[in-house]
Amino acid sequence: MKLRRRQSKDQTGTPYEYTHMPLLPGHKNASATPSLLHPPPPGGEEEARSRGEGGDLHTGRILSSDIRLEETRVTKMTAGFQLGVIGSLTLSVASSVSIVICNKALISTLGFPFATTLTSWHLLMTFCTLHVAQRMRFFEPKAIDGQTVILFGLLNGTSIGLLNLSLGFNSIGFYQMTKLAIIPFTVMLETIFLKKRFSETIKFSLLILLLGVGIASVTDLKLNLLGSVLSGLAIATTCVGQILTNTIQKKLKVSSTQLLYQSAPYQAAILFATGPFVDQLLTNRSVFAHKYSAPVVGFIVLSCLIAVSVNFSTFLVIGTTSPVTYQVLGHLKTCLVLSFGYTLLHDPFTMRNILGILVAIFGMALYSYFSVRESKKKSAAGDALPVSQMPEKEVEPLLATKDVDNDSKKANGVSHDC
Question: Which residue intervals define the domain Sugar phosphate transporter in the entry (predicted)?
């Protein structure tokens, strides 16, 4: 194949040179489609094309086709991601409500009140299940900086113990207020440290949600100094842990499964060490002296199996959405549990409970609507993020990590739903 150099002139009469490369015989444009190694100045290409020597007429069509293919691929990926988020939310709600029912039977009916120790068994079962899954190649493990994953695991384990202590040293009403305070505290931390911006509509919907849950679940508000301190520590550790669950997955680019697999042993370890003492402090009974009948053992095993799904979905939801969305989902679970208690267990239910649940559901609907609307706006602007907040600035994780191409993650703990 020979390259032929040709001379031509543009519309101003200025000469220029371009190279003509004949195509293979039989090509539909073999006679009239040169390759311009030295593009002509404006006007020259039109003149060359009028002579039958013009440039590539198919380039624009090819680029347009590539753009359409890329848009189709992105649309399919977005649809798949949205289905994954819906699936993780559904799994979280179903598994959390199931474990509440199971634990209620275990604690109230069968008389096994050792919630903190039970949670340590949950985390051990979660780790063992993930280890088997990893050995069977269901997922690939990813090394995470040791200091980060240890501190992360200990923080999450501590938050579970503190929430249980808060429940033990406070009234039910004050404990519910403690759980309600997690959302505004999380918003505050993300605004200060992660520079996230929450729109006024999102804040308004969260306010409606918290008001509804407060009406439905908060009764007496008896205060005491020790209980208040424990509640404050529980709020702080829970918020930071959940923010880190989201931040570590995104910064270190690890999946929820990889992070849970790495951190579960440390969470289980701290609860194994402290659980029996915390439970004895709260119940005046020893977990080692308890009589383990067949029904008790059966419900413990069932609770541990459900907990695998609870812990996995917790990491998945926080990683794919945001800590605030996870807390909103948690209050939906509260409403479902209250409704379940009324319809199936015939727990006392008043008009105040009904009104509160309706207001809370309205707040959740507003939050979902505004979140989806803002996500669509960001998608249209070319920034398709799955979270409800405005675009955020890249910052360092709250836990310092070494400059390694590794990653880590956080867990919420089953006892939050118990």
Answer: 95-368
- CB count, 10 Å around CB of 364? 21
Which portions of the chain are predicted below pLDDT 70?
Answer: 1-81, 220-221, 344-347, 381-418
In 3D space, the residue among 88, 418, 130, 119 whose CA is nearest the CA of residue 260 turns out to be 130
Class of residue 323 by CB neighbours under 10 A (exposed 0-12, middle 13-18, buried 19+): buried
Residue with tokens 């309706």: 358
Q: Which domain holds residue 235?
A: 96-416
- Secondary structure of residue 5 in the 3-state scheme: strand
Closest by alpha carbon to 388, among 323, 332, 335, 331? Answer: 323
Closest-CA residue to 254 (of 400, 90, 404): 404
- Dihedral sign (CA 359, 360, 363, 364): negative
Residue 50 lies in a domain: no
Report the C-alpha gap between 55 and 344 in whole angstroms: 76
Whether the full predicted model's pTM is greater than 0.85, yes or no, is: no
Helix H or strand E encompassing 7: strand 4-9
Cα-Cα end-to-end distance for the chain: 78
Whether 234 and 162 have beta carbons less than 8 Å apart is answered as yes
- Give Cα separations from 259 to 123, 266, 411 (angstroms): 13, 12, 9
